[in-house]
Amino acid sequence: MKLYVGNLPWSVDDKALKELFAPFGDIEEAVLIKDKYSGRSKGFGFVTFTDDEAAKKAISEMHEKDVEGRPLTVSEAKPMVPRDNASRYDGHNSHESSEAPMADPSAIEQEVEDNVEEESAPEIVDDTDTDEKDIDTDEEAKEDAESDTPAVEEAVEAEESTDTGCQGC
What are phi and psi of 113, to 5 degrees? Predict the structure, then answer.
């Protein structure tokens, strides 16, 4: 029988987990679950006993037992519930998609059309200056640019001073 052991202190490793349950009977396997990136304990593990009676005794005596200030949770392990992306866990490729269903574009277009109120198009205002002529060719653009007078800014030159502001220099 396989037992779930939760709320384990971080100091417990596989060996310590096995030693913790060894007094109850022969242990086939004791595994501490670890984070795959950091290698740090996730705070729970599984202990598999060769004898069901020994496992039941371990549950009754170890559940809520204080280990390093933490009350253990000990129960019969339940089969892992497959996640939506089950192919990663069931050992073979699943043909079921774990993605959200695709929307039907034609249904969306119809819904939008049904919900849009008949409105007149907004008025387009021509704010261009009526005195300007239309420019159709590169030649006309060059002529127009040549006729423009460039904007000129007068630079104010800073007055030079020989006074450094230093007294006694």
Answer: -60, -40
Q: What are phi and psi of 129, to 5 degrees?
A: -70, 130
Give the model confidence (pLDDT) of 23-71 as tens digits: 999 999 999 999 999 999 999 999 999 999 999 999 999 999 999 999 9
**Would you call 22 helix, strand, or coil by DSSP?**
helix
Higher pLDDT, 160 or 75: 75
Report the Cα 37 to chain-centroid distance in Å. Answer: 16
- Would you state the structure tokens that stand for residue 105, as one six-digit string? 């574009």
Q: Is the pTM of this model over 0.85?
A: no
Architecture of the domain defined by 2-68 = 2-Layer Sandwich (3.30)
Indicate the DSSP class of residue 119: -
Number of other CB atoms surrounding residue 165 within 10 Å: 6
Q: Which residue has the higher pLDDT, 72 or 116?
A: 72
Q: 111 or 94: which carries more pLDDT confidence? A: 111
User: Quick one: residue 147, left, alpha or beta (phi over 0 = left, psi -120 to 50 = alpha)?
Assistant: alpha
Rg (CA), the chain: 40
Report the alpha-carbon distance of residue 24 to residue 96 in Å, rounded.
Answer: 43
- Dig out the tokens for 70 from the structure: 């933490």
Q: Which residues contact 12 (CB under 8 A, 6 or more apart)?
A: 20, 32, 41, 45, 67, 68
